[in-house]
Amino acid sequence: MSQLPVIFKRELASYFATPLAYVFILIFLVLSGVFTFYLGGFYERGQADLTPFFSFHTWLYLFLIPAVAMRLWAEERKSGSIELLMTLPITRFEAVTGKFLAAWVFAGIALLLTFPMVITVNYLGEPDNGAIVAGYFGSWLLAGAFLAIGSCMSALAKNQVIAFILAVAVCFLFIVSGLPMVLDAFAWAPQWLIDAVASLSFLVRFDSISKGVIDLRDLLYFVTLIVAWLAATAVVVDLKKAA
Amino acid sequence: MIELRSLTKRFAQHTAVDALSFSVQPGEVLGFLGPNGAGKSTTMKMLTGFLAPTSGSASIFGHDIQTQTLQAQRQIGYLPEGAPCYGDMSVRGFLEFIAEVRGFRGAAKRQRVEAAVAQVELEKVLGQSIETLSKGFKRRVGLAQAILHDPRVLILDEPTDGLDPNQKHQVRELIQGLAHDKIVIISTHILEEVTAVCTRALVIAGGRLVADGTPLELEGRSKYHQAVTLVGDGALDADALAALPGVAGVEVNRSEGSLTVLAQPGQVIFPQVNALISQRGWAVKELDVERGRLDEVFRTLTRGEAQ
After folding, report:
1. Are B232 and B216 within one domain?
2. Residue B78 and residue A84: Cβ atoms within 8 Å?
3. What is the ipTM of this complex?
């Protein structure tokens, strides 16, 4: 465990060493604003809450988070620095987790920079700030789940663009698995299977959290998902590192 | 001590390293020789714990690389082929990162980084990002990270590849200047390097060990070992030279106008040749006794295996 912070620190700093971090944060802030005020009808609703803000996060993350995650492992393999990293006295766990946490904290920083939203809504009305905090927390969990998937896809592909596309595709499946268009395809299946597929959906889980309801089961869902995808990342890194 | 026991690595199509067994003692500078694709890098990748062997094992000072990976890796400083680094980091930032991973903090960290920087002369580029550096400097950054924790084992994969003659010389001096209780393994296909820095040379081809000895012993295997080359003004009598006791044959190099008299294995023929020259009164401009040609030994050893 002792070297995890070292990996984390280097990884987080490397985001800010290139324009990537600033470009990402800028695009995230602009898009989340556009979605909230134009598509979400923030003013027209006449309610002091951030539901229009959070409800678009799933779709915003679908494209933005894989862009953050794609470099995690693909870049190491492309440049060969993975050979350096994996021959340093660190465990696979430290490397995988350190990198993931750095990306997650980075996403968290971007998310926190949307604080003017909170100020705005508090200025305009009297929102339930507890629900807003829960929404932020849920959104961060959602980002974590996307990142864990993206990290695994990045380990799978040497090319960052392919890593990005793979991650978008897998994340998309997790988003839509609760929608009728997917569930209808399972019409032949027993009810428990349909329920199982539906319960995988980010949309359903995130919807309840973003309304301020933190259910232990939803929490467990996201944590399990992150752990499982990180475990898969470790396996894939081992299999693919020399290729 | 490093010990390899039937270390084997098979990829889908071919066997890269085939039951390699040898051991290296502290104080040895081992030159790892072989044509491209012979399995040098693969062996080094297994020794450093990057690749898992298909079968067999390797241990670094008693720590098995498979089961006690971290303990083994702590003993090793490794320069991978091509010296990959994090290009977007500054030299200082990168070396500090390595120092921290190696468990150094605070003053100890600063001191380690400074020592490594001084050893490979990186002072001028400390603040630059690594991707802006020249090839020679990048290689030195790679060396600095390998020697930073003063490891007992130094594994360098083609440390001088792509460097200019001055830079090659610097790297060799650095290796020679390391403490004498270390194990150093260098892979190379530059043969002069082996004679220059190694105490022992190991030749592999097709994943198998084909020769193991000091550079001198390897030179001794050459058919040119103890051969005498003559450059004469007038005609030299090749048949008379060939008839001398202990002579295996005579090669005539027409382009240079010289003769090379080959010795039978274990024979010293210089006195006989010299006696014949004075007896016949030949005007000889140049007379050269060879130690052996390493490149010729290398070709003979690896030609059959490489295909």
Report:
1. no
2. yes
3. 0.87
